[in-house]
Amino acid sequence: MAKQKLKSRAEIAADSKWRLEDIFPSNQAWEEEFAALEKLIPEAERFKGHLADSPESLYACLKWTDDLGLRLEEVYSYARMRRDEDNREPLYQGMTDRAGALAVKVGSATSFVVPELLALEPKRFEELRRYGPLGIYEQAFEDMLRKREHVLSLAEEKLMAEIGELAEAPSTIFTMANNADLKFPEIRDAEGHEVELTKGNYLHFMESPDRRVRQEAFEGLYHTYQKQVNTWGATLNASIKADIFTAKARHYGSALEASLDDDKVPVTVYDALVETVHEFLPDMYRYVKLRKQALALDELHMYDIYVPIVPEFQMKIPYEKARTMVLTGLKPLGAEYLKALEAGFRNGWVDVYENEGKTSGAYSWGTYRSHPYVLLNHQDTLDSMFTIAHEMGHSLHTYFSNRSQPHIYAGYRIFVAEVASTLNEALVMEHLLSTTEDKKLLAYLVNHYLEQFRGTIFRQTMFAEFEKEAHALAEKGEALTADRFSEIYRGLNALYYGPDVVQDAEIAGEWARIPHFYNAFYVYKYATGFSAATALAKGILEEGQTAVERYLAFLASGSSDYPIELLRKAGVDMETPTPVREALRVFAGLVNRLEDLLNQSAG
After folding, report:
1. Is residue 249 part of a domain?
2. 73, 157, 207, 391: which is the annotated catalytic residue?
3. 391 assigned to active site
4. Enclosing domain of residue 56
């Protein structure tokens, strides 16, 4: 049998690639903008020490820094997305490194602004703020004053900006090793073909009805990571130490507190998420036990967790069909939303297929003056279809925010970002559940929806608990080795999956492959976002236009207010455990529904 190899970037059809030329028409144009920005940096000296001279000088400085940030965003995004097309390409590795270094220079040059403003006499600051054109910065001023105790002196802020590149080193090293250097073994697929295992096709193999394929993929992936486990441990340890250093330097009680304060989210919200999910672990155990029974297995292993419980129903969904399914499922969001979504599919937003060296997974990105972009690694599965809905949710959030907000507030915070993406998934799923008559397909979809809950609320909360425990140990001065990380992870995996799952030795090392751990205390937002999205989707389906208008206003709000306030205006209060609890009640109901469907099928 011929081996199935990944295509090179050049072999991917042009209409399946994103159009980065909409940011810069050529690499030469990028080089010219890079050089122009380098020349702009010294202009910071004419503002330094003069912000209080007049409201006009303050406004001129803020407008200059905002313009510089907007243009830097374009330079960095273009270089990084080019690199993501093929991480082995030295030209784009170099451009990304240069853009990162330029970002540090810009950060260092503009680092005087906040300390200088906070050093002003409160009366003088208030006088300056009354100047009409400065009204656009009112929310930014409020946020600045709120964080006064965490802003350092002028010299210290400059130093913090300059060490930013060092603090990013663990993440950069992990990304390059994980995407460019790691080679996985070949395995035999269900038809007996020799196929190269990749991070992109791993989940596809884990959903295979052939248990041998699942086990080979599982062991092939984790044994590959295990070969460098001490390196992964040292890299993650360095990242955690950088988080702790930054938190201490800025006078926070912990790295967790420091991370959450950016969104003005109390630590109690994080802790309440973990506690509420723990309340519903018995329902998770029920689901796991049902999976074991449905698959007729004496032992349920970790490589049996992703395979659909209804394996005889196969769904092959090519990209074009997946796109149509997403558009149909999102009709409740109205004509304005659908028009923007269709334009995105047509106009070079999406990079569809996996190729050699391409960054794994999926994301949405973009710049203020261009359109959003989506990186996919489409695999013709139901999961890939939902990934399209998810990432286009992010992109439409970006589109509406960029259209409605000035640049300073267009970039929404991650806490609310996951609401837009998971709401899309919820609406598409609800459409499929309400229109499907085939009992096998219905059982398959309920199983898939349960997997979204498992993967987004339970799994991400487990990750969040891992991050909290690892950081807490480091803050106490305890050593974090690869073995220690594995010990923590093994214990949490056993807690979250319960007694009916065999704790395969390989799963203890799963922490080594999770890129989100290099962006500390990020993953809990998937769980809170999923919960908020469940509530908002319910409102849209039940209330109709009124709820849609509230939701579109939310999408257009960017970061013009704090995340919890924006969600409260949209109709969800995340400072209570109610949204998480209500979402998990839906999960419990879905377990009951799947049990009934499987019993009907057996009968």
Report:
1. no
2. 391
3. yes
4. 19-162
